[in-house]
Amino acid sequence: MGQRAWWRVAPLVLALAWGGNHFAPLLLLYRAREGYSAVEVDLLFAVYIVGIVPGFLIAGPLSDRFGRRPLLAAGALLGCVGSAVLAAGADLLPVLAVGRFISGLSVAAAMVVGSSWIKELCAGVPAPVAARRASLTLTAGFGLGPAVSGSIAQWGPAPTVLPYVVHVVLTLVTCVPFATARETRTPGAPVRAGRAPQEVRRRFTVVVLPAAPWVFGCAGVAFAVVPALVARTTGGGAIGYATLLAVVGLAVGAAVQPFAARIGAATGGRQLPVGLAVAVVGLLLAALVALTASPLLGVLAAAVLGAGYGVCIVSGLTEVQRSAPPQHLAALTAVYYSVTYVGFLFPVLLAAVSAVAPEPLLLVGLAAVCTACLAAVLRGLRRV
C-alpha cells in the first residue's frame, strides 16, 4: 500500500472541503450586490448545515457497508452540481439555498468518508498522526477555498460565477488520482450490528461532545461575525478583509494542529480543554472588536479563534479514531462532525438576537457558554 497511499484520496477531500467553505467571504458580496439582509445571508449557513448533518449520518454508515469509493465519488458529483447551482442563482435566494444544501451533502462525504479512508490508508501510524493528516487536509481545503474565491470576489471578473467554476475544475482534476486509490472496505461485506462499546460511547459523550460545537463555532465567529463587526470601517475592502480573516484563521488552525499531541503530553491528555480555553479568549477578543470596530483587533481575534479551531478539531478526531472499532469508525466520525457543525449556527443565532441585546454582550455570553463546556470536559476527563 505504501506510506503515501493516502495522497491519492487527500486531493479530492481538499477540493470538496474547498467547495464547502469558499462561500464564506462571498457573503458580504451577496449583501452588497444583491441586497440580501444579514439574517438572509446567515440563513444560508443554516441551510448548509441542514444538508451536511444528514449527509454525515447517511454517508458514514453507507461507506462502512458499501465501501469508501462510491460514497466519495458521489460527494464529488454533488460538489460539482452544488457549485453549478450557486453560480446560476446569485440573484435568487431560494436557488442559493438549494446550492448550499447540495454543497453540504458533498462536504459531508468529504469529511466523514474522506477522514475514515485517510485513516485506514495510514495503517501502521499512530492515531494522532492519521487524525492530523485528515484534519490538515480538510483545513487546507477550508482555507484555500476562501482565499481564492474571496480574492476573485474582491478583485476578479465575474465574482458570483468564477469562484464556482474554479471549484468545479479543481474537483474534476483531483478525481484523477482518486480513481486509483485503494478501497479499504469490501463493498457489500456484512457490517456487525449494534452500537460501539459502552466505554467508547461514554468517553465520547462526556469528553468529545461538549467540545465539538466549538470547532466550527470558532470558525463561524471568525469568518462570519467578525468581518460584519468592522464592515463600516473596512468599507470597499470588506470582501478582501473577510478573505484575510479566513486565511489567517485557518492558517493558524493548520499551524497548531501538529502541536496538539505535544499539548496533550504536556497537560496529561487535556488538549481539548486547552483548545476550549483558547476559544474563550478568541470570543472575548471578538467582543472587543464589537466595541471598537478595529480591523487589526479583528485579525488578532481570527488568529486566536483559528488556534482554538485547530486544537479542538484534531484532538476530537484523534479521540474518535483512537477508540472507534473499525466497523464503527465512519459512523462515529459522522456523529462527531455532525456536532461540530452546530457551531456554524452561532452566527445565525447572534444575528437573530442582535436586535434585543448588544453584540459585545452576546459574544461575552457565548464565551461564558464555552467556559461551561470547558468545565464539562475537565469533569469528563476526571470521570473516565
CATH class value: Mainly Alpha
> Into which percentage range does the β-strand content fall?
under 5%
At the fourth level of CATH, the homologous superfamily is: MFS general substrate transporter like domains
What share of residues is helical? over 70%
First-to-last CA distance = 36 Å
Quote the CATH topology.
Growth Hormone, Chain: A
Number of domains: 1
Taking all residues together, what is the mean pLDDT? 88
**Shape call:** globular
What is the second-level CATH architecture? Up-down Bundle
The succession of helices and strands, N to C, reads HHHHHHHHHHHHHHHHH
Characterize the structure shown:
By secondary structure, the chain is mainly α. The chain has one domain (5-180, 197-383): Growth Hormone, Chain: A (Up-down Bundle). Helix content is 79%, strand content 0%. It is built from 17 helices and no strands. The radius of gyration is 20 Å and the shape is globular.
Task: Name its key features.
79% helix, 384 residues, Growth Hormone, Chain: A, mainly alpha
Précis, in short:
This protein has 17 helices and no strands. The protein is mainly α and 384 residues long. The two termini are 36 Å apart.
Compile the SSE list and pairings.
Layout: H1 10-21, H2 27-34, H3 38-66, H4 68-88, H5 93-121, H6 127-155, H7 162-178, H8 198-211, H9 213-229, H10 231-234, H11 238-256, H12 260-267, H13 271-292, H14 295-323, H15 329-340, H16 346-353, H17 359-383
